[in-house]
């Protein structure tokens, strides 16, 4: 049975994305209670840029990470393709 | 932010009739969030990868938990 | 609306086939202080809280769903290839009898999730104090599960989740401070 095999590089890129997304999340919660911290806002905007780049990298191996217009589709439609996050 | 400890200990009463081997010392957790009232700006951060592993971006909140039962063994 | 991202918040690894741990982990799936309760609590309270803390409850509530997915992943991996015999030995034969390996929102003793686990009082201080308590209770639950688990990979993910409770409790405390604050004053302590 043919199933998608993810290369080693995928796991590496995915973990990099998880790390950057985690920093973004932590800054988000921090800024929710510290809305005037300019330095944190700058860091947030910078990490958001880095995220775009990493998302693109992960999607090369894995297909779209998000739906509703946040990721481009391959052809045929590959959003619904396994593996899902709890399977990998 | 003054220095603080994140584990506290107490010594429960030991009765001669306690059925299990007495635990002389019991521990409870007093995590860093009890001591850092309103997070001040510019606290030292972990790198993104370290932060993911630690579960927090800020070193001041990092409180690794080791089971006291496993420490005892 | 919400947007799903096809990625776990944290790289969950499970190395040992130990379905017994799934029995304990489900406490944080459908238990009183579990991730489902947390997500639903915050995302429901937010409608009637003062504007300046709605963002925080929205973001923490959303993160709780990512934690729910991590717990689900651990349970899924621990049980997916276990035989009914192994599940019986692990003490989850009663779960299997009703659900096969499907996940279900119940606690470690099999009690189904209930909305009575969470509160929405409409009083901002009462609600935020409940949220702080919920985070500390979830932290404690993670500690007790770590005490019983000897799988280093599971404990790694649980340590992450436990640490998140600490950060969330901190932010909820700051939210209380924001609501205590006199208008126009920004103060660090």
From TrEMBL, chain A:
Organism: Texcoconibacillus texcoconensis
Keyword terms, alphabetized: Capsid protein, Virion
Domain (Protein CotJB): residue spans on this chain: 12-87
InterPro entries recorded: CotJB_dom (IPR024207), Spore_coat_assembly_CotJB (IPR016571)
Protein name: Spore coat protein JB
Automatic annotation (TrEMBL), chain B:
Protein name (Swiss-Prot/TrEMBL): Spore coat protein JA
InterPro entries attached to this UniProt entry: Spore_coat_CotJA
Organism, as annotated: Texcoconibacillus texcoconensis
Pfam families the record matches: CotJA
Keywords, comma-separated and alphabetical: Capsid protein, Virion
TrEMBL record, chain C:
Domain of life: Bacteria
Protein name: Spore coat protein JC
GO molecular function, one term: metal ion binding
Positions of Ca(2+) binding: 59
Annotated binding of Mn(2+), by residue: 35, 64, 67, 135, 168
A Pfam family assignment: Mn_catalase
Co-factor binding details: Binds 2 manganese ions per subunit. Binds 1 Ca(2+) ion per subunit.
UniProt family annotation: Belongs to the manganese catalase family.
Record's keyword annotation contains Coiled coil: no
Keywords: Calcium, Capsid protein, Manganese, Metal-binding, Virion
InterPro entries hit by this protein: Ferritin-like, Ferritin-like_SF, Mn_catalase, Mn_catalase_dom
SUPFAM superfamilies associated with the record: Ferritin-like
Cofactor: Mn(2+); Ca(2+)
Keyword Manganese: yes
């Amino acid at each position: 049975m043919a199933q998608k095999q993810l290369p080693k590089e995928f796991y590496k890129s995915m973990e990099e994305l998880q790390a950057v997304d985690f920093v973004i999340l932590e800054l988000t919660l921090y800024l929710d209670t510290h809305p005037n911290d300019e330095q944190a806002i700058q860091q947030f905007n910078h990490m958001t840029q880095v995220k775009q780049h990493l998302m693109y990298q992960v999607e090369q191996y894995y297909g779209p990470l998000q739906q509703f217009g946040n990721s481009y589709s391959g052809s045929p439609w590959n959003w619904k393709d396994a593996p899902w996050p709890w399977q990998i | 932010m003054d220095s603080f400890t994140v584990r506290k200990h107490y010594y429960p009463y030991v009765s001669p009739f306690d059925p299990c081997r007495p635990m002389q010392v019991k521990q409870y957790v007093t995590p860093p969030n009890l001591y850092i009232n309103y997070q001040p700006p510019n606290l030292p951060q972990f790198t993104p990868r370290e932060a993911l592993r630690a579960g927090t971006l800020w070193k001041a909140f990092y409180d690794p938990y080791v089971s006291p039962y496993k420490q005892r063994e | 609306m919400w947007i799903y991202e096809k990625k776990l918040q944290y790289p969950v690894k499970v190395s040992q086939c130990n379905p017994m741990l799934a029995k304990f982990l489900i406490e944080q799936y459908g238990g009183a202080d579990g991730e489902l309760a947390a997500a639903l609590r915050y995302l429901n309270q937010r409608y009637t809280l003062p504007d300046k803390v709605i963002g925080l409850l929205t973001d923490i509530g959303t993160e709780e769903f990512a934690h729910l997915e991590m717990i689900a992943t651990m349970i899924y991996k621990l049980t997916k290839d276990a035989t009914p015999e192994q599940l019986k030995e692990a003490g989850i034969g009663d779960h299997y009898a009703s659900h096969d390996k499907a996940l279900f929102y119940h606690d470690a003793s099999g009690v189904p999730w209930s909305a009575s686990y969470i509160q929405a009082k409409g009083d901002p201080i009462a609600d935020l104090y409940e949220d702080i308590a919920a985070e500390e209770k979830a932290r404690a639950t993670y500690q007790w599960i770590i005490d019983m688990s000897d799988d280093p990979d599971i404990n790694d993910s649980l340590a992450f989740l436990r640490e998140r409770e600490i950060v969330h409790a901190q932010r909820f405390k700051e939210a209380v401070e924001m609501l205590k604050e006199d208008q126009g004053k920004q103060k660090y302590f």
